[in-house]
Amino acid sequence: MDRVIGTSGRIAFASAMRNLLADVYPEHDHADLVRRVFEVLGLPLEGDGAEPCEEYLRKWDQRDAFLITYGDSISRDGHHGLESLGDFYRTWLKDWLTGIHILPFHPFTSDDGFSVSDFSTLRPELGTWDDVKALSKDATVMADLVANHISASHVWFKQFLAGEKPGVDYIKTASPDDDLSDVVRPRSHPLLSKVTTSDGEKHVWCTFSYDQVDLDYGNPDVFFEILKIVLEYLKHGVRVVRLDAIGFIWKVAGTSSINLDQTHKIIKALRLATTAVHPDVLFITETNLPLLENLSYFGNQDEAHLIYNFSLPPVIIHALLSGRSDYIRKCIMSMPPAPAGCTFFNFTASHDGIGLRPAENLIPDADIEVMTDHARKMGGQVSYRSLKGGGQKAYELNVTLFSMLAESFGGDRTYGLERFVMSQAIAMSLEGVPAIYVQTIFATENDQTGYEETGIPRRLNRKIWQLEEAEERLSEEGIAKRAFDQLRALMSIRMGQPAFHPNATQYTLNLGPELLGVWRQSHLNDQSIFCVFNLTDQVQDLDLSKINLIMTEGWTDLLSQQVIEDFNGILALAPYQIVWISNIDGRNRIDSRLLQRYRDAMPV
C-alpha cells in the first residue's frame, strides 16, 4: 500500500464511491458497500491519516513503450518462462522498451490463458509472484485481468453447480425465453450453455465459449472479488492493469449487453478504490469496438487511463497494402486528443490477430473483403462473428503482421521489410504510447505447425521461441535482424524527442493519397516533428510548401540527417521511406550511433 487517505480525502472518497455504487446497486445498502470498500483497501473508517492522495505526476512520456507477450513466448529448458523472458528483455529490449505486458499468467483450461481456473497463483511453468516482482524492477509491468468470465473448472463455477456459497451467486444465467436478440457477440456459437446443477437445469451466459462462463456483476460480491485480485496484482509489482473484455461485464436481456452504463461505473469504482491506496496504478481497457464506443472508456477522465487504439491496425495495414492514405487519414483525423491524464495505446499486432470490427465506418465492406482475401492468400485464417438476424461477418484476421505485409495488394514482394518497419514507425509517431507484439520483434512468419497441431487459427500468431533460437534470429544476418535493428533504432531515436510525448499536440496533414503525414508539437512548443510516410513502392514527391516549416528555424530529417534548406522545394521520398523532419533542436538530441544503426539495417 502506497499511502492512506486522510480525513478530508476520506470523506470525499466515501462520497464519490457511494454515488457510483448506488447507481450500480440501487437495491443494496450503500453505506455498507462503502464500508466494505474501506475494509478491502485496509483504510480506517475514522481518524486522521496522511494527506489525501495527490495525482501521480509522471504517468508516461516519450520514453515509454511496451512489449506485448505471453509469459512463455520466450522459453528455455530448465527455467521458468518469466525468468527467460526477463533475461531476454534485459539483454535485447530494456534500452528501448520500458514496459512489458504479460498476457494471462494464471492456470487456465482454454483460450491460451483467457479461461482462468485460479486467480491466486501463476502457472508453475511460468514461475511465481516473485518472478513478476523481479520483472517489475526493470520494467513497468502490465498484467491481464480477465474480468468478464472464469473457466468452467474454476472453484466458483464448481460451487455454482453444487449450490454452494459463494460461487452459487457469482455466475450469470438467463432463460432461453429471454429476448437476447440484440446481444452483441464476438463469437458465432449460441450464447447460453445448458448445465445441470443441484437446483436443476440452468442456462449459463457464455460470451466467448462454453469453457468461459460469465460472472454476474449484478452481485456486488463479484465486484469486491475483482477488486481484491487487482490489489493482489499491485502487491506483486504490477503497475498497469489491463481489463480484458471489460465491455461485456454487465448484461441485461433486451439490450446489446455491451458498454452499458453500469459497466462504465464499475470501472470507475475500481479505479477510484485502487488509486486511494496505489496512486500510481494505471488502468487500460480492452474494448475491441468501433472508434466512438472505444473512446467512451475514457469517461470523464475518471475511467481508463489508456485505451487500446483498436482502429489503428486495420487502417495501417490497408494503407500499406493499397498504397492509399485515405482510410488511415480519416481514422487519425477522427481521433480527438485524449483528455488530460489519458492517452491511447498504439499497436499494430497482438495475440488476437487483426481485429476488423474497429474498422467499421472507416473501411468499406468491399475493401474489408479484399483484406480478408489477402490474409488467406498469405497463409492466414479469418474468424467470424454472428450478426443479429442471422449471418456472419469477418471479425478478425489470424495472420502474423510480417506475413500479412510481405506482399502488397498489387503483388509487390520487393518491399515487404519496408512495409513491416513502416507499420511500426507509424504507430510510434502518433499520439499515445506505442506497443510492439513479441512476434513483431522477430518478424515472425505464420506458425503453420502450431495451427495445424491445434486447429486454433490464433496459433498462427503465437509461436513459442526457444531463447537460443530467438537470440540467433536477432544476431545472424537476415531480414529479422535488419527489421529488429531498425525498430530498435527508431524507438531509441523517438525516446529523445519531446514532440513524441504521448499527449503532445497532433495535426493530420493532407499530402495526397500516396503520402501519410502528421505534425507533432511538444508541450513547450520547442520542438515540432513532421512525420511523413511514402505508402507506395514508387518514388513520391513531398511538396515542402504544404507543411509548416517555420523559416526562422533550421530543419532536418532525424533519420537521414538531411538538412532542409529550401522550404518551398520538393523532397523526393524513396519507396516506403520514412521521414521525421524536426527543427534543429531535435537533431541535436540524436545519438550518431543510433543513426548509424538505423542506416546499417536498411536494405541495400
Automatic annotation (TrEMBL):
SUPFAM superfamilies associated with the record: (Trans)glycosidases, Glycosyl hydrolase domain
Domain annotation Glycosyl hydrolase family 13 catalytic: ranges? 64-494
Instruction: Give the domain of life.
Output: Bacteria
Query: Would the keyword Repeat be found if you checked this record's keyword annotation?
Result: no
Enumerate the UniProt keywords alphabetically: Glycosyltransferase, Transferase
PANTHER family reported for this sequence: ALPHA-AMYLASE FAMILY MEMBER, GLUCOSYLGLYCERATE PHOSPHORYLASE
- Name by which UniProt lists this protein: Sugar phosphorylase
